[in-house]
Amino acid sequence: MTFDDFYFEYPLLDGLDAMGFYTPTPIQEKAIPIILDHYDLIACAQTGTGKTAAYVLPILNKIAAKGHKGLNTLILVPTRELAQQIDQQVQGFSYYIDVSSTAIFGGGDGHIYEQQRKALLKGADIIISTPGRLISQLVTGEIKFNHLEHLVLDEADKMLDMGFYEDIVKIIGYLPKDRQTLMFSATMPPKIRTLANKILHEPEQISLSISKPAAGINQLAYMTYDGQKLPLIHHLFKETSYQSVIIFASTKEKVKNLQFEFKQLGLKAKSFHSDLEQKDREDIMNEFKNKKLNIIIGTDILSRGIDVDGVDLVVNFDVPPDPEDYVHRIGRTARGESTGTAITFINEKDQRRFHHIEQLIERVLEKSALPEHLGAAPEYQPEKKQSSGFKKKFKPNFKRNPKKPS
Q1: How far apart are CA 191 and CA 213, in angstroms?
Q2: d(Cα 93, Cα 321) in Å, to the nearest integer?
Q3: Residue range 194-250, pLDDT digits in tens
Q4: What does the alpha-carbon distance between residue 48 and residue 336 come to, in Å, rounded to a whole number?
Q5: In a 3-state reduction of DSSP, which class is residue 242?
Q6: Which of 46, 66, 324, 352 matches a 20 to 30 Å C-alpha distance to 97?
Q7: Residue 265 and residue 260: Cα distance in Å, rounded?
Q8: H-helix or E-strand spanning residue 160
Q9: Helix, strand, coil: what percent of the chain each, to 5?
């Protein structure tokens, strides 16, 4: 099957051809006909499956075919990074179509807020927004959705996890009832079902295999004490030259500390977290995308908010608390048909968490042996209750300033 089989408008097909899009992914193949036929949809598909194009393309086709009268589509997303990413994709797909889009998100100054307000008032065809910032615009009473035809909730589960349920319901109160509503979520817990029942009308449903990492990911795991993690990082980077690396840590504070620790090891890395100004975050992401920065360190906000090709290594410095977050984290590598490596460090307290991950992915990962100079590692005994107060004294035997990844 090719995109020609959807009978898209020619300018849209020209845009797809220019971007090198020829064959739809499974989620696109299933979702596009449903959306073109004007049905509501709830789709369960993880990041990296092409879900953005699955809803953007049929919406663009409708606008190209019918023309536009103002604000046509509202896309709600959990983070500013995802809003910007989707806005860029819309602009790419609509290159040969007279369609405008704007990303609306918080964190900017008054000038940015005013730019966003004007975009809403003048009626950009497609608005991609975080719930909180859109609420602040709506309370002025100036924004109207009289011509809105499509509402999309992307990464709905993440929005609910971040506490946006009330904001989403409030926003929907401003929208016309006669609309097409599309919900995309990586997981389908009961709270998502409840929201879907509240805002969707007799929806079609799509569920792809969402809890299985891509086949191209080489998944590795190491049992480590906390004091062995940085020396292990040093060893791994000394053994192999990685071009593009994402390190995931459990907290914002640890992310900041790791940037300093990596500098002490002679590794150029930058931390990515919510305390940074918007411009700083954008600059870091651009450096990383353009391969001017090899290593980026962040929390789970990075697992869903970025789309970077060529990431060859993901390291879980800490085991994520939610098994689904593991799938999202390691999904940053081996995008499309490419391959990559994902490494997880498991300390004595995180064994049960990792066991839950193995149950989710239906696979027991071999625990790689530590290099001899790092000493003994904890035994993997996930069913045994671990003492949170146990600490192993460890003196790393390594030299500072190793060779940087080239």
Answers
A1: 24
A2: 36
A3: 999 999 999 999 987 655 788 889 999 999 999 999 999 999 999 888 889 999 998
A4: 7
A5: coil
A6: 46
A7: 9
A8: helix 156-161
A9: 40, 15, 45
pLDDT of residue 177: 93
Closest CA to 31 of 180, 206, 155: 206
Task: Name all domains of the chain by residue range, CATH numbers in brackets.
Answer: 3-207 (3.40.50.300), 217-374 (3.40.50.300)
* Cβ neighbours of residue 221 closer than 8 Å, sequence gap 6 or more: 343, 344, 345, 346, 354, 365, 366, 367, 368
First to last CA, the chain: 40
0.70 exceeded by the pTM? Answer: no
- ∠ CA 262-268-270, nearest 5°, is 80
233's CB contacts (< 8 A; 6+ apart) are 247, 262, 265, 267, 315, 317
Residue 402 makes CB contacts below 8 A (sequence gap 6+) with 234, 237, 238, 265, 266, 267
Sheet containing 41-44: order of strands: 101-104, 126-129, 73-76, 150-154, 180-185, 41-44, 204-207
Stretches in the chain below the pLDDT threshold 70 = 47-48, 107-110, 123, 209-211, 301-307, 336-337, 385-406
DSSP-derived 3-state class of residue 296: strand
- What's the chain's length in residues? 406
Of the candidates 64, 54, 52, which has an alpha carbon nearest to the alpha carbon of residue 128? 52
Tokens of 107: 């964190």
- List, as one string, the DSSP characters of 11-60: HHHHHHHHHT--S--HHHHHHHHHHHTT--EEEE--TTSSHHHHHHHHHH
The two three-digit tokens of residue 101, written as one number: 């889009």
**Matching residue, tokens 């920065």:** 293
